[in-house]
């Protein structure tokens, strides 16, 4: 049976910089390891979060299996206070889309250092 733990793989040109990017958005680094000559980082919204992002070195993965790194995942993060989160992200170095209302929800997007696109939705 499946449990509530979800890990999403992201590929980055620099695992360290990608981890720092997510930490700058308020995530915590769960682990940072060297595996088989490559770096792997795991970040989450909190230490107790059941959803983690596992960041692998793109070049290392492409060298070992060039079909694994595409397409990039499309993630939608939920927020209980989308306005405060949007204001916070405006203060960090992140490519940020407009905050728009769709029905009763508010939505915006952002892009990480490696061009991965993410959506935030909430009230």
From TrEMBL:
Highest taxon of source: Bacteria
Protein name: VOC domain-containing protein
Organism: Enterococcus hermanniensis
């Amino acid at each position: 049976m499946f449990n509530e733990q979800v890990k999403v793989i992201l590929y980055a040109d620099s695992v360290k910089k990608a981890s720092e990017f997510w930490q700058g958005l308020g995530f915590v680094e769960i682990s940072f390891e060297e595996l088989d000559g490559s770096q792997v980082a795991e970040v989450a919204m909190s230490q107790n979060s059941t959803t983690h992002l596992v960041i692998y070195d793109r070049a290392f993965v492409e060298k070992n299996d060039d079909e694994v790194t595409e397409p990039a995942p499309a993630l939608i993060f939920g927020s209980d206070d989308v306005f405060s989160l949007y204001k916070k992200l405006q203060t960090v170095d992140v490519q940020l889309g407009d905050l728009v209302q769709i029905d009763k929800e508010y939505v915006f997007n952002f892009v990480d250092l490696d061009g991965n696109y993410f959506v935030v939705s909430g009230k």
